[in-house]
Each structure stands twice: as structure tokens, then as C-alpha cells.
Amino acid sequence: MKSILRKALTLRPISKLAVGIARVLPGSWQKRLPVNVPLSRLKLDGGQEVSLAQPHRCHVAQEIFWGSGQLDSAQDRNALDAAIAFSRNAGTFLDIGSYTGLFALAVARVNPNLHAYAYEIVGENYLLLWENVLHNDLGDRVHPCLVAVGGEDGEIRIPYAQSSGQLASSVDIGWSTDHGVRVPMKRLDDLHLDSPGPVALKIDVEGFEMEVFDGAKAFLEKHRPDMVCEVLRRAKRVPEMMELLGGLGYRWFHIREEGFARRDTIVADKFRRDWVLTCKSDEELTALGLELID
């Protein structure tokens, strides 16, 4: 019944009527309402913007539509702002677990000299990622890659589609089956050891962060990239991650609504999942515009 209702609400005439009614009603429930418009547009500083297609299928585009050009939560806005700040003078940005490309597109829009590589493992997400690249006329600098980033070379198979409604945003390399789309797995040491620096990363791999770092030892040693990284409560190798990164001079800051909170230990939070991982000093982070808090 829920899927039937969702399909009905995404029919163009019904969607237009539902959106008009929802806008005049009180409450915050509207952001869950699917909307069938061609594009949502995220507003960036300096009058720039990024367009995301098919908001009836992409939950990020839907969120931006109902947020009048902004992400819904301050924590999410801070995470994107950090990625943009780290990328303003970068040569390369890696969006690992890109979904439909928001981070890669935003940093490439802000820095005209940067090349962004957007890694995604779900076939239908990858196609919409490409569509977004074309809508934003960034095909020369944003490079979608149907590749799993992991600790060893290999191959996984991921079903092309995960649902008949919104595109799945929480698929990981552990979803590999004996059928589906063949997706190569590669290491960052092989993919980007010699990429132009500085390098910045966004990592959203549903608990497999350390597997990414397993294949990135030389890459991390060489580039010391600034990172925005999601850490879930089900992630099992966080102590290993802290040991590896701490040995390279990294510190970690929990991204909160009010700013970036320095922490001695990475402890996953159910609602505030994102962290900054960086070798930069407090003074350097403040100079980039990051609000450091206790």
C-alpha cells in the first residue's frame, strides 16, 4: 500500500496539487512527501548552485526541494561546508559512496581547478549521478566511477536496483550477491597515489571505512588528505582506524549542529554520524571558516 501511494504522489498532476497543499499546512512532515519536479537546486555561497535531478527518486534532492535550496539539518550543512572548505585549494576530491553526487558536484562548482572522482556501487544511483553531472555541465571535471573502494583488488556484484521507490543510500560492499551488476573493487593506493594534491575526501561507506583505509596506506602517508567521514554505530574497526590515522598525525572532530567538536576518541553517534579527520591545526581550521566548539 505504501509503495502504491508513493507512486500515486509522484504522478505529475497529483504531485503538483499535493505540493501546493503541503506548503500552506503547518508542521515539518512535508519533507517526507515525494515531489515530482525536474530539478532541485542547492544554493551555495557567492550565488552559485548545484542542480540535482529526479527528487521523487533521490532523497537528497527531495530534502533540498523542501528546504528551499538547503539541506535539512545544520549538521549536514556543516559536513558539506567542511568538504567545500577543504577543497577550495585542492587538486583532487574523492567522493567515496557518492550516492547521486552532491559532494562531488558542490566542491567542483566552488573550485574550477579541481577534479572530483565520485565512487558509487549501485547501478541506478550511478546513472542518476551521471545525469546530475550533465545537468551541471561538469562532465570535464566530475568523474563518476562504478567502482567499490576497498582493501584489495577484486569484484563484487550488486543488484542494479534496491527498491521500486527512492534510490537506496545505505548499500555497502557487504551486499554483494551471486547476481547483479559486476562492480570492480580497487584500492586507493592504486587509484590515486599519484593524483594531484592537495587531496580531500568524503567517505560514506556504511561501516566499511577501515576497509577503505586498508587499501590506502601509501596514499594516506603521501597525501594526508582532509576528510569528512561518516562513522556508524555498527562500524567494527573504529579503534584500528584511530590507531592508523593517529599515527599519521590526524585528529578528529565530531560534526555537530553548532560546529566542529574536538574529541579524543571517535564514538559513533546514532544521529550525528559525520566526522572531520584532519592533520590541520586549530588555527588552520579556523582560518578555513570552521567553527570549533567544545
Descriptive labels:
294 residues; alpha/beta; Rossmann fold; 2 domains; 9-stranded mixed β-sheet; 3-stranded mixed β-sheet; 14 strands; globular
Ordered list of secondary-structure elements with their pairings:
Layout: H1 2-9, H2 12-24, E1 39-43, E2 49-53, H3 59-66, H4 74-87, E3 92-96, H5 102-110, E4 115-119, H6 123-135, E5 142-145, E6 148-149, E7 154-158, E8 181-186, H7 188-191, E9 199-203, H8 209-214, H9 217-223, E10 226-230, H10 238-246, E11 251-255, E12 260-263, E13 274-278, H11 282-287, E14 292-293
Parallel strand pairs: 3-4, 3-9, 4-5, 6-8, 9-10, 12-14
Antiparallel strand pairs: 1-2, 7-8, 10-13, 11-12, 11-13
Short description:
With 294 residues, the chain is of the alpha/beta class. The chain has 11 helices and 14 strands.
Overall morphology = globular
- Please provide the ordered H/E string of secondary-structure elements: HHEEHHEHEHEEEEHEHHEHEEEHE
Beta-strand share of residues: 15-25%
CATH level-four homologous superfamily name of the largest domain: Vaccinia Virus protein VP39
Low-confidence parts, pLDDT < 50 over ≥5 residues? none
